[in-house]
Amino acid sequence: MSLLLFDATLCLLLLVLALASILSRQLVHGVILYIAxxxxxxxxxxxxxxxxxxxxxxxxxxxxxxxLCFSALARQQLHLPVVLSWPxxxxxxxxxxxxxxxxLAALLQLPPTASPLVDVAQAELINSGVSHxxxxxxxxxxxxxTLLELVVLLLALLGALQVAPAAxxxxxxxxxxxxxxxLAPMVILLAGYLLWAGASQPGGAFQAGALLxxxxxxxxxxxxxxxxxxSNFWIRLLIVSGVSAFxLAALLAMLLTTDNTDVIWLRWPPxxxxxxxxxVELFATLAIALTLTLLVVxxxxxAEQAQQNSGGEAHD
Amino acid sequence: MTDLSPQLLxxxxxxxxxxxxxxxxxxxxxxxLRRILALNIIGAGIFMLMVVLAYRGLADGAAxxxxxxxxxxxxxxAVSATAFALALLARLKQARPGQYRPEQEPGP
Lengths: 316, 108
Known about the structure:
The structure holds two protein chains of two kinds. By secondary structure, chain A is mainly α. Chain A is built from twelve helices and no strands. Chain A has helices at residues 2-23, 27-47, 51-75, 86-108, 117-124, 133-141, 143-163, 174-197, 205-221, 233-256, 273-297, 302-309. The termini of chain A are far apart. Chain B has three helices and no strands. Chain B is mainly α. Chain B has a single domain (6-96), classed as Helix Hairpins (Orthogonal Bundle). Chain B is elongated, with a radius of gyration of 19 Å. At the A-B interface, helix 1, helix 2, helix 3, helix 4 and helix 5 of A face helix 1, helix 2 and helix 3 of B.
């Protein structure tokens, strides 16, 4: 009963934070409330007994999205809050309430039967090479999804690098600098543990990659890790390696399949599946971490780069 | 679906509520950054709904791993889409700085 009370409080808090983030008059307040909302979402995932999602959400939803929105906020000019008239607020609210009623009615009519995929996944878990069902689904049963997701990440990074103007140079203060240095080894240790633990318990490439990215963003914002930029050849290689290692592993698995009767793309041979999954996950973790980091911090201002190249000549 | 535990029913209600709030924010706006935030809130509501659906019809408290894996993929795709949207927004601001003062806009 007390747990139900906790759930009710959490749900109420989520709704209030979301509403306040939408309705707040200052955009800054909206962004800050959204970050708090992301943290509460991580708590909700933990309450729903999905620790995989809680780990990813805590790093992505609250950390990276918050950093992204703040840097977007820094680029915007401050302007007066826009005041909407009553009809402008009322009609969307009526429409949304109608939608909400429809959605709730539809949800309560869903048949309460489990998806047939659950039994299939459980039965095939022995042949998947890992013992954690979520990792088995991500990297064995539905590895197409994961491969294409890595492609989507790569495309998003390429697109963002094309269109985004150079980031403004920011200053860091001593406390955040020393704190980020203290945090860095712990982040690396935790990410390594998450990657390794993913085979048998909650954890895996996404969570480890998101955590590494969060740590790298903090260091990068404090002007550490200056080699971590798109113009560095090795960084580009590692970012592409997420997709390429996946494809190469799939080709290797096709070659190693002994019975030539049915060679299927992206099917690991059962006795080697564990090794394949670990290999793919290792490169996916590095690629996800670097891609997310570059998506958030972007490239430094062109002037700063030019100064470094030309040995400190005066530039605009 | 009415035979779910009260906890899951509560989360279904919250998921639908988050979806509605996000939809309202997306329609009303008025700043583009707030619309992007609203899209993320809609996404959070849909992910929460998927988690509740993962528990549907399973007695022993284990969730459907296929749906969980889909949500995990969705989280990463959502953040990359948000990053791309914000990059486009930054470009837009750079192209026309005075967005809320139409008289200063270089009109077509």
